[in-house]
Amino acid sequence: MRYLIRGRRTGPVLMAAVLATAGVAACSNGAPDAGAGGTPTPTGSAASSPATSAAPSPTPTPTPTRTYPLSTAPRTIPAVQVHRPARGPGWSPGPAAGIVVAAGSEALTDEGKLLAGELKVAFRGTVAAGPHDIELALGGSGAPESYTLTATGGNVRITGPDQAGVFYGTRTVKQAVRSAGVVPEGVIRDRPAKPQRGLQVDIARKFFTAGWIEARLREIADLKLNQFELHFADDQGFRIASDSHPEIVSAEHLTKAEVRRIIALAASLHITVVPEVDSPGHLGAVLRAHPDLQLRNVQGVPRQGAIDISKPESAGIVDDLLREYAALFPGGWFHVGADEYQALTVRDPAASYPQLASAATAKYGAGASVADLAEGWLNDRAAVVRGAGKTAKAWNDGFFRGGRVSADRRIEVEYWTGTEIGARPPSEYLAEGRKVVNLNDKYLYYVLGEPNQFKYPTGRAIYEEWTPRVLRGTTPVAAGYDPLILGGRFAVWCDRATAQTQTQVAAGIRLPVTATAQKLWDARRPTMDWPTFRALAAEVRG
Which of 127, 128, 132, 149 is closest to 97 using CA atoms? Predict the structure, then answer.
C-alpha cells in the first residue's frame, strides 16, 4: 500500500506517516482490527498524533473473498455412488430457504412438500428458484431411479429421469442435513446397483398393525428401498379381509381400507407393495374353513397346510384369492409361493399320494410325477396373476429339475435355501437364465424365536460379508451371473409369534435392514468401517 505525501514532511510528521503506513499494512491480510465494541479502530501512532490529521485518507484494501475447503461426500445411508467435490458453502436450511418445483415438473409437488416439511422450510410451488432454494426437476436420460444433485452458491438442484430418482435425491438431502447440517458443495451422481430392494414381513403368523407397517415404510423409504412384501396367508392366519372368501379371514386382520391406505403411503414413497398368497403349501388358514380340500395320504392322514392339487376345487379357491388381491394391489408383482409342499417331502410321493400321481399322468402323460403336477400348479397360478398384469414370484424350492414340466422362465426365483427338498445350488437357476432375487436365509432371515438353528442376523455380518451375489451360505456366485440377480430382500418370519413384540421386531431389524439397503444400493466393499456406519445410522435416523 502506498501513501501520497503532499509537500515535504520532516521530523515527527514524517515519522507519524511512516508508522501509520506500517500499521495499516500489518492488517492488510484480513479484516481490520476491531475495538472492544466491534468497530474497526486505526492502529499505530497515527491514531493519536495531531500531526497526521492533514494527511489524506488511505485507499481502502478490499477484504479477501472467503475461501472454503474442498468439500467431501455427504454422510448418508446408502452412501452416494459418485461425488465431485467443489469449494463453497453448500446448502443448509434456514429462514430464507425453500423448496421449488421446476416448470413442467409439477408431478414432483408431493416430493417437494414432503421435503419442505421434513426440513421445516417453505414450499414455494412451481416458481423460479431463488437464493437458498432447492429445486426439483424431471429430466435427463439416466438409468431408472438415478439422480443428479448439484449444490452450488447456496442452492441445490435435483434432477432425474423419473420421480423415484428425484425422490432419492431428496433422501440424500434429508440425511446430509441430519448427519452434518449441510448439503456439501459439488455434484452427486447416484443410482442403485439393483432394481429390487426390499423388506418382507410375515403378518400371517403374527399380526402387525397398519400403523406399524406404515412406520416401516417411512423408515425404508429413507434408505431408498423400493419393495415391501406382505406375506399375509399361512397356516396360522389369513390377515387381509376377503370378499370372495370371507370365511377364511382371521379375527385379527387388515381391512381393505387399511390396505389401500398402506398402498397409498407406499406409492407416495416410491415403494411397491407385493402380496403373497402361498400355495399349494402354507394354506392352513384356508383349509380350516375347507377341510375337504386338505391333502391326505393313502391312510387318510392329513398333511398340515397342504391343499390337494388333484381336486379342481383347490385351484378354484386359490385362483379366486389371486384375482381378488391382484385387483387390490396395483403393483407389478405377485408372489405365488410354491415352497415346502408336504407331498414332496416323503420318500415315495406316488405311493403315499396316489391321487396326485393319477392326476399327474392324466394331465401330463405316462411317466409324469407328483413333482410335475406341483410344477404345473405353479405355472397355472403364475398364469392367473400374469393375466392380471403381474409378474409372478416363487420360492426357489418350488422349481424342480429333470421332470416333464419345467417352471415358466418368466417367474422370478426368490432364492432363500439350499437345504429344502427340491432346492438346488443358486448357480443352477442362473445357468438356466432365470432371474433371481436374493433372500439368503443365513443373512436375511429374521425368524422370531430362532427355531431350527436360525439366529437373528446382524447388521455387521450383512455389511461386512454379504452381497447380492452371496445367494446361499457365504460363497458368492460367479460375477458373470450378476445381471440376472435382480436384488434382494430382508425378511421377517414369525414362526414363534410371541417371541418378540412389534416394538422389539422394529428395533431388532433396524440395523440389519440398514446394512441390507447399503449393499443393495452399492454392492462394493464399503469404505466406512462398521462402528462408523453404525454411528451414522443413528444420526441419519433422526
Answer: 132
List beta partners, residue 515: none
- The residue assigned the cell 412438500 is 113
Give dist(CA 203, CA 220) in Å, integer.
Answer: 18
Element (H, E) at 106: none
DSSP characters over 7-42: S---HHHHHHHHHHHHHHHHTTTSSPPB-TTS-B--
pLDDT value of residue 317 = 98
Residue 422: the pLDDT is: 76
Predicted pLDDT of residue 15? 36
Distances (CA, A) of 394 to 203, 382, 415, 510: 18, 9, 9, 26
What's at 537, amino acid-wise? Answer: A
- Please give the grid coordinates belonging to residue 160: 432425474
Burial, 356: exposed, middle or buried (Cβ in 10 Å; 0-12, 13-18, 19+)? buried
- Name the residue with cell 410321493: 349
CA distance 220 to 213: 11
Q: Mean pLDDT by 10-residue block, N- to C-terminus, for the chain (542 residues)?
A: 35 36 36 36 36 49 70 98 96 96 98 98 96 96 96 96 98 98 98 98 98 98 98 98 98 98 98 98 98 98 97 98 98 97 96 98 97 98 98 97 96 93 91 98 98 96 98 97 98 98 98 98 94 97 76
Residue 527 amino acid letter: T
H helices present in 426-501, as ranges:
426-431, 459-465
Cis bond before residue 280 (omega within 30° of 0): yes
pLDDT tens digit sequence for 433-455: 999 999 999 999 999 999 999 99
Candidates 260, 178, 248, 181; CA nearest to 213 is 260
Tell me the one-letter amino acid at 61. T
- Residue 183 — φ and ψ, nearest 5°? -90, 115
- Rounded to whole angstroms, the Cα distance separating 516 from 535 reads 16
| Rounded-to-integer distance, Cα 314 and Cα 291, Å | 11
Cell 501509520, located at residue:
20
Non-local (6+) Cβ contacts of 33 within 8 A are 27, 40, 41, 43
Strand partners, 147: 190
- Burial zone of 537 (CB within 10 Å; 0-12 exposed, 13-18 middle, 19+ buried): buried
Report pLDDT digits (tens) over 223-242: 999 999 999 999 999 999 99
Contacts of 20 (CB under 8 A, 6+ apart): 3, 42, 44, 45, 46, 52, 55, 58
CA gap 470, 488 in Å, rounded: 10
Q: What is the pTM of this model?
A: 0.87
Provide the b/e sequence for 445-477 (b: ≥16 CB within 10 Å): bbbbeeeeebeebebebbbeebbbbbbbeeebb
Residue pair 187/290 in contact (Cβ under 8 Å)? The answer is no
Q: How many CB atoms lie within 10 A of CB 538?
A: 12
